[in-house]
Amino acid sequence: MIRYEGTLYRPPSEADSLILQATIGCSYNECTFCAMYRAKRFRVRPIDELAREIEWASRADPETRKVFLADGDALIAKSSFLLDVLARLRSAFPGLQRVSCYASPQALAVRKVEEMAALREAGLSLYYLGIESGDDEVLERLKKGVDSTELIRVARKAHEAGVKLSTMILLGAGNRARSLEHARNSARVVNAIQPRFVSTLVMTPVEGTPLWDEATRGEVDDLAPIELARELREFLAALRLDGTVFRSNHASNYLALGGTLPKDQAKLVAALDAVLGDPRNARFRPEWTRGL
Predict the structure, then answer these.
(1) Do residues 69 and 101 lie in contact, with contact meaning Cβ atoms separated by under 8 Å?
(2) What topology is assigned to 12-277 in CATH?
(3) Among candidate residues 33, 5, 89, the one with its CA nearest the CA of residue 252
(4) pTM of the complete model
(5) Per-position DSSP letters for 38-107, written without gaps between them
């Protein structure tokens, strides 16, 4: 059977995927807002353990089509290790269509384009990249470990390797003071990357993180739904994308929007303009239904 260590996290779109914990924790683990892996020591799991789990999963669900490699930073593992895991997955699941993982900017920085291309050929075809913000002041405050120029550089490496990127932006990460700069610069970075998917989450302080400590000191602005809608409108209006799927359906969002850009861009901006023009009729998600 498959034995997971600690709390398991995966993107919403991987709800139907087999989750294989190829690594434990996150090799970077310094982002101020993230509590997911703070209780875990990062390490790569032994291949023999994974082999036994893959064999068990092949018997339990031989029709598996998608696999997500957890935890937070599987891409940082050696290329030879990942190729071994991917070969075992292909052998175990004849109908396998996609393998995906989270990709930190640090992991993308150390990966050669040729390595990522080889991994893509072996099945690892989608990375989830948390951009969080394109504003350098915000990135520094969040302790992402990179600036916007580096984010663009490493993401383009994945693009060059033919890997699809699903990127995330944190609404509210700029506080009120840099809300517009955060929105506009985030759009600038996303435009430069041209990801296949882009989604928004609302930054939420979680106990046990530096962001939580900042919030208890009154240093984090709790933006109202209408303020977040204004920020989202600014972000969407500035996007210049060619065939990117947009979603704000994560449970942390107050407004669930979706479409393909640029086709649906005007409609999405108009919907937000309607909310901003008459907030009383806005269908914000009730607070009790929101979460991470």
Answers:
(1) yes
(2) TIM Barrel (3.20.20)
(3) 33
(4) 0.95
(5) TTS--EEPPHHHHHHHHHHHHHH-TT--EEEEESS-GGGS-HHHHHHHHHHHHHH-TT--EEEEE--HHH
Q: Radius of gyration (Cα) for the chain, nearest Å?
A: 19
Pairwise CA distance, residues 233 & 272, whole Å: 6
- Give the span between the Cα atoms of 98 and 111, in whole angstroms: 20
Phi, psi (5° rounding) for residue 219? Answer: -100, 0
Structural element, H or E, at residue 110: helix 105-110
Burial class (CB in 10 A: 0-12, 13-18, 19+), 229: buried
What are the boundaries of each domain within the chain? 12-277
pLDDT tens sequence for the chain (292 residues): 898 999 999 998 999 999 999 999 999 999 999 999 999 999 999 999 999 999 999 999 999 999 999 999 899 999 999 999 999 999 999 999 999 999 999 999 999 999 999 999 999 999 999 999 999 999 999 999 999 999 999 999 999 999 999 999 999 999 999 999 999 999 999 999 999 999 999 999 999 999 999 999 999 999 999 999 999 999 999 999 999 999 998 888 888 899 999 999 999 999 999 999 988 877 887 776 777 6
Query: 217: alpha, beta or left, given left = phi > 0 and alpha = psi -120 to 50?
Result: alpha
Helix (H) or strand (E) holding 124: strand 124-132
